[in-house]
Amino acid sequence: MEGDDISEKLLSKVQVEENKVNIKEKILTEWKKMWVIAAPAIFTRFSTFGVNVISQAFIGHIGSIELAAYALVITVLLRFGNGILLGMASGLETLCGQAYGAKQYHMLGIYLQRSWIVLTVTGTLLLPIFIFTTPILKALGQEEAIAEEAGVISLWLIPVIYSFIASYTCQMFLQAQSKNMIITYLAACTLVIHIFLSWLLTVKFKFGMTGAMTSTLLAYWLPNIGQLIYVTSGGCKETWKGFTSVAFKDLWPVIKLSFSSGAMLCLELWYNTILILLTGNLKNAMVQIDALSIW
């Protein structure tokens, strides 16, 4: 009997040790799976932020007014549009995840096209803010010189609004399939190109704001063009079946989900916008906005 008890205790200890090993292996396996998706997503967001930092660094060498105007447009107007479009695009993440989990692979391409339609309409509705930037900023109490320069910069950034549509939707679409390494490669190449072009156009050839904004536009659009080519040219054979008129049907559920997702994210992003606007009403607004934008 004592021998049986000892054997049972030894077996139970072995089972406990085996369970510990299995748990560790499962945690490690899940950790690896998570980082396959998380690491490219983190780097992509970092690179998007990096584009603004690089542009801002080179614009800072052009002039204080230009830096303050760029900071005002980026942190107020572009962030306003960015918050709406990113929030609405996050609804696509839910739809694509559900469709991929249910093995309805063809629906991912349809959801992607529906999201393009909804976000394109939304982005177009935001255009008056960028077209009438100067009078809007003056009405909000910003310095006239900064408001005038911001009006010019905001016109340059209209294509960036549409680049967000392609960027965010393709990212959600590819992440649902764990195919987002292509996004990382494109983002890394874009940062290198953006640094070189910014130096070439603003420092070497001294094209001023024209050079800086040209490089910025290319930095936003190059990775998106790459993503669109990858998605539509065979990179996602199971989930992309080509353009279809079905995408124009049943848009209302997508609209509702997009707006509810957008509202949550906008509240998170806009607090900094209010801070910048308040700073523009202080004395020496140019210096204050420059300092806050660098921070």
TrEMBL record:
The chain crosses the membrane at residues 67-95, 116-138, 150-170, 182-201, 257-278. InterPro entries: MATE_fam (IPR002528). One of its GO terms (molecular function) is antiporter activity. It holds the Pfam family MatE. It comes from the Eukaryota. GO terms for cellular component: membrane. Keywords: Membrane, Transmembrane, Transmembrane helix. Belongs to the multi antimicrobial extrusion (MATE) (TC 2.A.66.1) family. This is Multidrug resistance pump. It comes from Solanum tuberosum (Potato).
